[in-house]
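Still learning. Show one?

>
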Amino acid sequence: MFFQQKNGFMKHKINDSSSYKMEIISASEISQFLYCSISWHLQRCGYKPKSDLLETGIKRHTSLGKTISYIGYELQKSRRLALAGYLLIAVSLSVIILWVIILVA
């Protein structure tokens, strides 16, 4: 794993007794660093790029994330309703079978 010290340099080793604060660098940050190390460094220092396309992308990703969360919630809800339906069918069949057995006997 790669870790970044507060001063911006990367290290390969974690040392808990170190006085440096280590932060985990994500795979997307490594990709961004390989694409443009200056842009990566500026963003790590707190500079944010100004771009309408970037803002549009962030909004679309946020919307997509909300949609995926909603779909996950609805999928979980539909599974619970399907289970309730299967249980209702099983109970109904059991009642019908018992009713037929009682009528025949």
About this structure: The first helix runs from residue 27 to 35. The chain has two domains: 1-49, 54-105.
